[in-house]
Specification:
This protein is α/β, with parallel strands linked by helices and 380 residues long. Helices cover 41% and strands 24% of the residues. Bound molecules: iron/sulfur cluster.
């Protein structure tokens, strides 16, 4: 019997070598033993899902965190072997891993490659060491250059770099230099994010205390626009608000989210979406360990997505894509036209020149790209 549909898997690794100044992700400083032990727990959690998703084929896997590149080579091999025993992987499965520059030595790269990881996403953030210091990153630009070379030498061709604009003290020239240099390295994918000051982070505290000044909003907007203008000239297609890729090298895993498809979330603090229900794993490491030891799924919250919520999610997630939403695909998925179901919202947004309708597609306009959160608010 054939598999009913594909599925993606997100695996959260909660450990980092140190805590960055801007980070509010669930992560803590951990050593090699902590990580090896955590991998054993993940293996048990994987087997708990064996029956649950036995009729689905795994199309993408994403190791996020935290810092997955802290996982020793042998451990990642074991973890992926366990996954392959428990689940059915498609032949062209995309397996991505987030890494910090400088953490992947030749031995690790070899094991990662052997384990069938075929995409690495490096957290570069900036190419100027003083800016990396502001962010509290524990690598420098040189580490990044060396790391890209060694990853390419080991046979990795699908490589992303995350870069950030809006860093206090960053000048337009710094941003341009970062964009141009990474584009010249011919990476397959670039993610360009605006820095946010999240409560509870050191950076937030320093802004509150007047120790550092956030960037002027107008300059930050110009940086967002500079990426949109410069990267296509260098062969990258702008396919999602914050993401650019070489043709055909879009991140398939993230497309799962934007296409509002289902995924399994594994590990502490992971979120998942399975059989029409969104769920959340505990964010407490001790509780996670206890539950796994007692063979109980670490899920602490489940919510059935109502038909109305499902349609709204398809809208605000899909509108993040530059190509927008296909009216036909929406109808095939939800049994109704989005042009009818969201008639008032869409008309109003078209009138405000934030959305436009292009044949089968509903897309953000140029103005809509700048005011995307305003657009999404209509569907939340
Ligand atoms: S490496 Fe990533 S997850 Fe870890 S503290 Fe820094 S930004 Fe956060």
């Amino acid at each position: 019997m054939g598999k009913s549909s594909g599925i993606s898997i997100y695996i959260h690794i909660p450990y980092c070598a140190s805590k960055c100044h801007y980070c509010d992700f669930i992560s803590c400083v951990g050593n090699k033993n902590d990580i090896t032990y955590y991998i054993k727990l993940l293996q048990q959690e994987i087997f708990m899902y064996k029956e649950i998703i036995q009729d689905r084929s795994v199309e993408t896997v994403f190791f996020g965190g935290g810092t997955p590149s802290l996982i020793p080579g042998e451990d990642i091999k074991e973890l992926l072997n366990t996954m392959k025993q428990a689940f059915d992987f498609t032949a062209d499965v995309e397996i991505s891993l987030e890494a910090n520059p400088g953490q992947l030595d030749a031995d690790k790269l070899f094991h990662y490659r052997e384990s069938s990881i075929n995409r690495i996403s490096f957290g570069l953030q900036a190419l100027q060491d003083p800016l990396l210091n502001v962010l509290g990153r524990n690598h420098n630009a040189e580490d990044f250059y060396r790391q890209i070379e060694s990853a390419k030498n080991e046979g990795f061709s699908n490589i992303n770099a995350d870069i950030i604009f809006g860093i206090p003290g960053q000048e337009m020239d710094d941003w341009l230099e970062t964009i141009c240099c990474v584009a010249e390295m011919n990476l397959s994918h670039l993610s360009c994010y605006g820095l946010t000051f999240e409560k509870g982070t050191s950076l937030y505290q320093w802004v509150q205390q007047g120790i550092i000044m956030p960037m002027d909003e107008d300059l930050e907007w110009k940086m967002f626009r500079t990426a949109i203008e410069q990267l296509p000239k260098r062969g990258y297609s702008h396919y999602e608000i914050s993401n650019y890729s070489r043709p055909g090298e879009e991140c398939r895993h993230n497309l799962t989210y934007w296409n509002n498809a289902e995924y399994l979330g594994l590990g502490v603090a992971a979120h998942g979406y399975l059989n029409g229900r969104r769920y959340e794993n505990t964010a407490e490491l001790t509780e996670y360990k206890n539950r796994i030891h007692n063979r109980i799924l670490p899920v602490i919250h489940r919510q059935t997505v109502s038909p109305d919520e499902y349609k709204k999610e398809t809208m605000f997630l899909g509108l993040r894509l530059i190509m927008g939403i296909s009216v036909e695909r929406f109808r095939a998925k939800h049994g109704v036209s989005c042009l009818d179901y969201f008639k008032n919202e869409i008309n109003e947004l078209v009138e405000q020149k934030l959305l436009w309708i292009d044949d089968d597609r509903i897309k953000l306009t140029d103005k809509g790209l700048d005011l995307a959160n305003q657009v999404f608010a209509y569907f939340v």
